[in-house]
Amino acid sequence: xxxxxxxxxxxxxxxxxxxxxxxxxxxxxxxxxxxxxxxxxxxxxxxxxxxxxxxxxxxxxxxxxxxxxxxxxxxxxxxxxxxxxxxxxxxxxxxxxxxxxxxxxxxxxxxxxxxxxxxxxxxxxxxxxxxxxxxxxxxxxxxxxxxxxxxxxxxxxxxxxxxxxxxxxxxxxxxxxxxxxxxxxxxxxxxxxxxxxxxxxxxxxxxxxxxxxxxxxxxxxxxxxxxxxxxxxxxxxxxxxxxxxxxxxxxxxxxxxxxxxxxxxxxxxxxxxxxxxxxxxxxxxxxxxxxxxxxxxxxxxxxxxxxxxxxxxxxxxxxxxxxxxxxxxxxxxxxxxxxxxxxxxxxxxxxxxxxxxxxxxxxxxxxxxxxxxxxxxxxxxxxxxxxxxxxxxxxxxxxxxxxxxxxxxxxxxxxxxxxxxxxxxxxxxxxxxxxxxxxxxxxxxxxxxxxxxxxxxx
Length: 458
Prior knowledge:
Layout: E1 7-10, E2 17-25, H1 29-36, E3 37-38, E4 51-57, E5 63-72, E6 83-90, H2 92-104, E7 108-109, H3 114-121, H4 127-138, H5 142-152, H6 155-179, H7 188-191, H8 195-207, H9 209-217, E8 219-224, H10 231-239, E9 257-263, E10 266-272, H11 284-299, E11 302-308, H12 315-324, E12 329-334, E13 356-358, H13 367-378, H14 394-415, H15 420-438, H16 442-453
């Protein structure tokens, strides 16, 4: 157990804003409210979860702001303890003085993540939900936020708990057969029949990790091509802002430019690169830019080869293709608002037609289809999972892998007629693996389930 002291911290982001919040959690929350906040009613008489208007005081009793305070009494609060929130104007000076007064009044400064840590220790969140809090704060796209919100809401935990409970029930029956085999006549195959369905669901969850990892960790996409095909214009069009300098002169972009781009919900670093020419380029600055472009290509998850659709293919286009052909590639036929001299079907490059998209950086035509094509390549050719549950943490997928390995060993053990206690050990390994994701304890659950289902003293 942790020390049940009282902690405090500024809960809103650094800097000035309309509102700033100081959060306090612990047994002295009400006492601290009485010292730092003056209202018509004493905090001891406040209704839980109701906002009260009053004056904020510094440690010398001077009024430094006016605002709202709310006391959320245990256990119906984020941390499961008494929680006080002071809602002041978003002045860093005011918030710092409020925090200082709370510390003088008996709180200590909270450690990073300590409010969520207390929520976990007090059973308000499980481990997967606690991880989702950080994911939600760090989300860079709406898709990332939705995945984190589902996990915070318990969707992943409920699914895993249902699967784990089915394993626990099978384990309880199996251990009952080990201990009371003379009284229980049930084939092992029948006891373990639910494992096939459980395994199928775990395989589906494991496969979802690619999507979850993309949404949580993001990806990198490089715009590549010869000079003056419109790479910088395409970047600006995709971002909806003039981030790259664009001129009619070839070679304007000499260095890489990186920007964050929402690619169908996937947080993506989109990189504009210097135009690729053969190694015979004489300008030393241009040669450096080309070398940096090649480094970006090596690191990119998807390379977009940008071609000028209004011109025939040139030697430099073939040179650019040679640089990216070993990568995951999407071709953008830019300048499609002009008379076309290139068609998707006539391209000499071995690439599926769905990965070639006509676009116009000038008019915006084809950008939605382009975004979908890049997202499909990032997902390995698959469509978005949509509303289905996904795994997004390496820890989660590693635990699912351990559970699947354990179930595979159970299946092989049953086929080989190994002793039931060995099969029981492997099944328990699977239970513990799934339980590790949410922080649940498997062994006691097995005993409880066993006593509920059988009258052992008979």
